[in-house]
Amino acid sequence: MITVSFGALSFDLINVYFPDIAGNACSYDGCTGSINGSLAVLIIAFPVFVKLWQIIQRDIVADKEKANLRVRTVLLYLAIFISGIVLIADLITLVSGWLNGSLTAQFIFKVIIVMAVAGMTFSYFRNELKQSSGSTRRLIGWTSIVLAVLAVVIGVWTSAPWEAHARKIDQMRIDNLQMIQSQIVSIFWTSKARLPMSLGELTDSVSGFTAPRDPETNLPYEYKLTGARSFSLCAVFTIETKGPSKNTRAIPAGTNSMDTWFHGAGKSCFERTIDPDIYLPKIR
After folding, report:
1. CA dihedral angle for residue 23, residue 25, residue 28, residue 32, rounded to 10 degrees
2. pTM for the structure as a whole
Protein backbone atom coordinates (compact mmCIF):
# COMPACT_ATOMS: atom_id res chain seq x y z
CA MET A 1 0.00 0.00 0.00
CA ILE A 2 2.80 2.41 0.91
CA THR A 3 4.81 1.57 -2.21
CA VAL A 4 1.73 1.99 -4.42
CA SER A 5 0.90 5.34 -2.78
CA PHE A 6 4.48 6.57 -3.23
CA GLY A 7 4.38 5.55 -6.89
CA ALA A 8 0.96 7.14 -7.44
CA LEU A 9 2.08 10.37 -5.76
CA SER A 10 5.28 10.45 -7.83
CA PHE A 11 3.31 9.87 -11.04
CA ASP A 12 0.87 12.68 -10.19
CA LEU A 13 3.72 15.10 -9.46
CA ILE A 14 5.34 14.18 -12.77
CA ASN A 15 2.00 14.79 -14.53
CA VAL A 16 1.80 18.24 -12.92
CA TYR A 17 5.38 19.41 -13.51
CA PHE A 18 6.05 17.60 -16.79
CA PRO A 19 2.68 17.69 -18.62
CA ASP A 20 2.24 15.77 -21.85
CA ILE A 21 -0.04 17.59 -24.30
CA ALA A 22 -0.73 14.32 -26.12
CA GLY A 23 -2.71 13.04 -23.16
CA ASN A 24 -2.48 14.98 -19.91
CA ALA A 25 -3.63 12.92 -16.94
CA CYS A 26 -4.47 15.96 -14.81
CA SER A 27 -7.94 17.45 -15.01
CA TYR A 28 -9.37 20.77 -13.81
CA ASP A 29 -8.05 20.33 -10.25
CA GLY A 30 -4.48 19.59 -11.36
CA CYS A 31 -4.48 16.05 -9.88
CA THR A 32 -5.15 17.51 -6.42
CA GLY A 33 -7.67 14.84 -5.46
CA SER A 34 -5.35 11.97 -6.34
CA ILE A 35 -2.36 13.68 -4.71
CA ASN A 36 -4.26 14.18 -1.45
CA GLY A 37 -5.24 10.50 -1.30
CA SER A 38 -1.63 9.36 -1.69
CA LEU A 39 -0.41 11.96 0.81
CA ALA A 40 -2.86 10.76 3.46
CA VAL A 41 -1.56 7.19 3.16
CA LEU A 42 2.11 8.21 3.28
CA ILE A 43 1.73 10.68 6.15
CA ILE A 44 -0.07 8.14 8.36
CA ALA A 45 0.98 4.67 7.20
CA PHE A 46 4.65 5.23 6.36
CA PRO A 47 5.81 6.29 9.88
CA VAL A 48 3.83 3.38 11.35
CA PHE A 49 5.48 0.97 8.91
CA VAL A 50 8.98 2.29 9.72
CA LYS A 51 8.39 1.99 13.45
CA LEU A 52 7.01 -1.54 13.20
CA TRP A 53 9.92 -2.59 10.98
CA GLN A 54 12.39 -1.23 13.55
CA ILE A 55 10.67 -3.23 16.29
CA ILE A 56 10.85 -6.41 14.16
CA GLN A 57 14.53 -5.84 13.40
CA ARG A 58 15.38 -5.35 17.08
CA ASP A 59 13.45 -8.52 17.89
CA ILE A 60 15.48 -10.46 15.31
CA VAL A 61 18.75 -9.11 16.70
CA ALA A 62 17.70 -10.26 20.17
CA ASP A 63 16.71 -13.72 18.90
CA LYS A 64 18.73 -14.86 15.85
CA GLU A 65 16.50 -17.91 15.33
CA LYS A 66 13.64 -15.70 14.20
CA ALA A 67 15.68 -14.63 11.18
CA ASN A 68 15.38 -18.19 9.80
CA LEU A 69 11.63 -18.66 10.29
CA ARG A 70 10.07 -20.32 7.24
CA VAL A 71 7.25 -17.76 7.01
CA ARG A 72 9.73 -14.89 7.03
CA THR A 73 11.88 -16.56 4.38
CA VAL A 74 8.91 -17.21 2.11
CA LEU A 75 7.73 -13.60 2.40
CA LEU A 76 11.22 -12.29 1.62
CA TYR A 77 11.47 -14.50 -1.47
CA LEU A 78 8.00 -13.33 -2.53
CA ALA A 79 9.02 -9.67 -2.18
CA ILE A 80 12.19 -10.29 -4.20
CA PHE A 81 10.24 -12.14 -6.89
CA ILE A 82 7.60 -9.42 -7.23
CA SER A 83 10.16 -6.60 -7.36
CA GLY A 84 12.15 -8.55 -9.96
CA ILE A 85 9.05 -8.98 -12.12
CA VAL A 86 8.32 -5.26 -11.81
CA LEU A 87 11.87 -4.41 -12.90
CA ILE A 88 11.58 -6.63 -15.98
CA ALA A 89 8.14 -5.22 -16.85
CA ASP A 90 9.52 -1.70 -16.42
CA LEU A 91 12.34 -2.36 -18.87
CA ILE A 92 9.85 -3.86 -21.34
CA THR A 93 7.69 -0.73 -20.98
CA LEU A 94 10.74 1.48 -21.62
CA VAL A 95 11.65 -0.38 -24.82
CA SER A 96 8.00 -0.42 -25.93
CA GLY A 97 7.72 3.32 -25.34
CA TRP A 98 10.86 3.91 -27.40
CA LEU A 99 9.48 1.79 -30.25
CA ASN A 100 6.14 3.64 -30.14
CA GLY A 101 7.74 7.09 -30.03
CA SER A 102 6.52 7.81 -26.50
CA LEU A 103 9.84 8.76 -24.93
CA THR A 104 8.67 12.06 -23.48
CA ALA A 105 10.13 13.51 -20.30
CA GLN A 106 6.98 12.47 -18.44
CA PHE A 107 7.27 8.86 -19.64
CA ILE A 108 11.00 8.59 -18.86
CA PHE A 109 10.61 10.00 -15.33
CA LYS A 110 7.81 7.54 -14.59
CA VAL A 111 9.96 4.63 -15.78
CA ILE A 112 12.81 5.85 -13.56
CA ILE A 113 10.49 6.04 -10.54
CA VAL A 114 9.24 2.47 -11.03
CA MET A 115 12.78 1.21 -11.61
CA ALA A 116 14.10 2.97 -8.50
CA VAL A 117 11.32 1.69 -6.23
CA ALA A 118 11.50 -1.88 -7.53
CA GLY A 119 15.32 -1.86 -7.51
CA MET A 120 15.57 -0.62 -3.94
CA THR A 121 12.96 -3.15 -2.80
CA PHE A 122 14.80 -5.96 -4.57
CA SER A 123 18.19 -4.96 -3.11
CA TYR A 124 16.91 -4.44 0.43
CA PHE A 125 15.10 -7.77 0.75
CA ARG A 126 17.89 -9.65 -1.03
CA ASN A 127 20.36 -8.35 1.55
CA GLU A 128 17.84 -9.13 4.28
CA LEU A 129 17.57 -12.71 3.05
CA LYS A 130 21.33 -13.16 2.86
CA GLN A 131 21.69 -11.48 6.27
CA SER A 132 24.52 -9.45 4.82
CA SER A 133 26.04 -6.30 6.27
CA GLY A 134 23.49 -4.03 7.88
CA SER A 135 25.15 -0.93 6.38
CA THR A 136 23.69 -1.61 2.93
CA ARG A 137 20.20 -2.12 4.33
CA ARG A 138 20.50 1.01 6.44
CA LEU A 139 21.57 3.00 3.39
CA ILE A 140 18.58 1.77 1.38
CA GLY A 141 16.27 2.31 4.34
CA TRP A 142 17.41 5.89 4.92
CA THR A 143 17.26 6.61 1.20
CA SER A 144 13.66 5.37 1.15
CA ILE A 145 12.77 7.60 4.10
CA VAL A 146 14.39 10.66 2.50
CA LEU A 147 12.59 10.04 -0.81
CA ALA A 148 9.25 9.53 0.95
CA VAL A 149 9.65 12.72 2.99
CA LEU A 150 10.71 14.65 -0.12
CA ALA A 151 7.68 13.34 -2.06
CA VAL A 152 5.36 14.33 0.81
CA VAL A 153 6.83 17.84 1.04
CA ILE A 154 6.53 18.42 -2.72
CA GLY A 155 3.06 16.86 -2.70
CA VAL A 156 1.82 19.12 0.08
CA TRP A 157 3.28 22.17 -1.66
CA THR A 158 1.65 21.15 -4.96
CA SER A 159 -1.71 20.26 -3.41
CA ALA A 160 -1.75 23.47 -1.31
CA PRO A 161 -4.33 22.31 1.27
CA TRP A 162 -4.54 25.89 2.57
CA GLU A 163 -6.31 26.66 -0.73
CA ALA A 164 -8.68 23.68 -0.57
CA HIS A 165 -11.71 25.66 0.64
CA ALA A 166 -11.20 28.31 -2.03
CA ARG A 167 -10.93 25.60 -4.70
CA LYS A 168 -14.25 24.12 -3.58
CA ILE A 169 -15.94 27.52 -3.82
CA ASP A 170 -14.45 28.08 -7.28
CA GLN A 171 -15.67 24.64 -8.34
CA MET A 172 -19.17 25.62 -7.21
CA ARG A 173 -18.88 28.70 -9.43
CA ILE A 174 -17.92 26.52 -12.39
CA ASP A 175 -20.84 24.18 -11.68
CA ASN A 176 -23.19 27.18 -11.60
CA LEU A 177 -21.85 28.57 -14.89
CA GLN A 178 -22.23 25.16 -16.51
CA MET A 179 -25.82 25.00 -15.28
CA ILE A 180 -26.56 28.48 -16.67
CA GLN A 181 -24.89 27.64 -19.98
CA SER A 182 -26.91 24.44 -20.30
CA GLN A 183 -30.13 26.33 -19.60
CA ILE A 184 -29.27 28.98 -22.18
CA VAL A 185 -28.22 26.59 -24.94
CA SER A 186 -30.29 23.47 -24.41
CA ILE A 187 -33.53 25.03 -23.17
CA PHE A 188 -33.84 28.71 -24.04
CA TRP A 189 -32.13 28.71 -27.44
CA THR A 190 -33.71 25.51 -28.71
CA SER A 191 -37.20 26.58 -27.67
CA LYS A 192 -37.12 30.28 -28.69
CA ALA A 193 -34.40 30.41 -31.38
CA ARG A 194 -32.79 33.39 -29.67
CA LEU A 195 -30.58 34.13 -26.70
CA PRO A 196 -31.87 35.77 -23.51
CA MET A 197 -31.25 39.46 -22.98
CA SER A 198 -30.49 38.79 -19.30
CA LEU A 199 -30.27 35.85 -16.90
CA GLY A 200 -33.65 36.85 -15.51
CA GLU A 201 -35.27 35.50 -18.67
CA LEU A 202 -34.10 32.02 -17.74
CA THR A 203 -36.43 31.90 -14.73
CA ASP A 204 -38.99 29.16 -15.28
CA SER A 205 -41.82 28.74 -12.79
CA VAL A 206 -42.75 25.33 -14.22
CA SER A 207 -39.33 23.66 -13.93
CA GLY A 208 -38.41 25.84 -10.96
CA PHE A 209 -35.17 27.02 -12.54
CA THR A 210 -33.62 30.27 -11.37
CA ALA A 211 -30.14 31.33 -12.41
CA PRO A 212 -27.81 30.52 -9.49
CA ARG A 213 -25.77 33.25 -7.81
CA ASP A 214 -22.20 33.40 -6.58
CA PRO A 215 -22.02 31.13 -3.49
CA GLU A 216 -19.80 33.54 -1.58
CA THR A 217 -21.11 37.02 -2.43
CA ASN A 218 -24.67 36.05 -3.51
CA LEU A 219 -24.27 38.41 -6.47
CA PRO A 220 -25.56 37.36 -9.90
CA TYR A 221 -23.04 36.14 -12.46
CA GLU A 222 -22.25 38.50 -15.31
CA TYR A 223 -23.93 37.65 -18.59
CA LYS A 224 -23.35 39.51 -21.85
CA LEU A 225 -25.09 39.03 -25.18
CA THR A 226 -22.29 39.48 -27.71
CA GLY A 227 -24.08 38.45 -30.89
CA ALA A 228 -27.13 36.75 -32.31
CA ARG A 229 -25.65 33.35 -31.41
CA SER A 230 -22.89 34.28 -28.97
CA PHE A 231 -22.67 35.24 -25.32
CA SER A 232 -20.22 35.36 -22.44
CA LEU A 233 -20.47 34.29 -18.80
CA CYS A 234 -18.20 35.86 -16.18
CA ALA A 235 -17.37 35.09 -12.56
CA VAL A 236 -14.81 36.25 -10.01
CA PHE A 237 -12.58 33.37 -8.87
CA THR A 238 -10.36 33.18 -5.81
CA ILE A 239 -7.46 31.16 -7.21
CA GLU A 240 -6.09 30.12 -10.58
CA THR A 241 -6.97 26.80 -12.18
CA LYS A 242 -4.36 24.16 -11.32
CA GLY A 243 -4.93 22.15 -14.49
CA PRO A 244 -3.11 22.56 -17.82
CA SER A 245 -4.22 26.08 -18.72
CA LYS A 246 -2.83 25.97 -22.26
CA ASN A 247 -4.69 23.08 -23.78
CA THR A 248 -3.90 22.32 -27.41
CA ARG A 249 -6.34 19.47 -27.98
CA ALA A 250 -9.34 20.00 -30.23
CA ILE A 251 -12.55 20.51 -28.23
CA PRO A 252 -15.88 19.64 -29.88
CA ALA A 253 -18.31 22.53 -30.21
CA GLY A 254 -20.87 22.76 -27.45
CA THR A 255 -18.94 20.55 -25.05
CA ASN A 256 -19.11 21.01 -21.29
CA SER A 257 -15.60 19.60 -20.88
CA MET A 258 -13.60 21.06 -18.01
CA ASP A 259 -10.98 21.94 -20.64
CA THR A 260 -13.23 24.90 -21.57
CA TRP A 261 -13.45 26.29 -18.03
CA PHE A 262 -9.87 27.09 -17.08
CA HIS A 263 -9.53 30.44 -15.34
CA GLY A 264 -7.14 32.72 -13.51
CA ALA A 265 -7.55 34.42 -10.16
CA GLY A 266 -10.02 37.32 -10.28
CA LYS A 267 -12.59 38.00 -12.97
CA SER A 268 -12.67 35.47 -15.82
CA CYS A 269 -15.07 35.39 -18.75
CA PHE A 270 -16.00 32.45 -20.95
CA GLU A 271 -16.99 33.18 -24.53
CA ARG A 272 -19.53 30.84 -26.12
CA THR A 273 -20.89 30.66 -29.67
CA ILE A 274 -23.80 28.36 -30.50
CA ASP A 275 -23.55 26.18 -33.57
CA PRO A 276 -27.13 26.01 -34.98
CA ASP A 277 -26.29 22.77 -36.78
CA ILE A 278 -25.71 21.11 -33.42
CA TYR A 279 -28.35 22.91 -31.36
CA LEU A 280 -31.34 23.07 -33.68
CA PRO A 281 -34.13 25.41 -32.57
CA LYS A 282 -37.50 23.72 -32.40
CA ILE A 283 -39.73 24.80 -35.28
CA ARG A 284 -43.28 25.47 -34.18
Report:
1. -160
2. 0.66
